[in-house]
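Sample intake sheet
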Amino acid sequence: MKFTMKLLGMGLVLLALMFTSCAKDGEDGMDGAMGPAGTNGIDGVDGTDGEDGADGANGADGADGNANVIASEWAVADFPDTWSFSQASVTISDPNITEEVLNTYTLLGYFSLSDSYTEIFAIPFTESFLRSFTMQQKMAVGAYTITELGNLDTVDTIDPIDGFVRYILIAPAPLSGKGGNSYSINGMQENGVDLSNYYEVMDYLGMDY
């Protein structure tokens, strides 16, 4: 009896092993559909703005412009080496000299024998110590001309003298200037400006030398 039960048990084990070895692996099932998206979370609270920085220092005020003043730069006055009828001229082209400027502006011209500008002559003038000549000036539309008139006793022995020239054109209409003064010629004279003194004129106008 025991032997029979033992055989029966062994048989059942063998059947289980045969069933397991013969069974095929099953195929993977299809993925399920995605569920609906969840609700968005609540936005976080904005942080507190930082304090504004301190304002920077104000820049320096620019120099006042002189709308009714036309000034050239210093230009080399390179005269011809020989006289023509005791005269020698240098002409500077300037489109700022229009018909209106020619007819209404006042001309101030200045001449220096060297670029050190230690001694500046207001044109017209007579230089009688070194070269003995007289300097004159004139304007035309688009041009400014200076002319040396040589001494008749020296033109055959001394050539025209070169130098440096600058001119300033001032409109007749007054402008508000320093302390309520006027930049017109009349205003300058009323305020004691010596028009023959280049540095006084430039200081009054607030312009660079």
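Comment: The radius of gyration is 51 Å. The longest strand covers residues 133-140.
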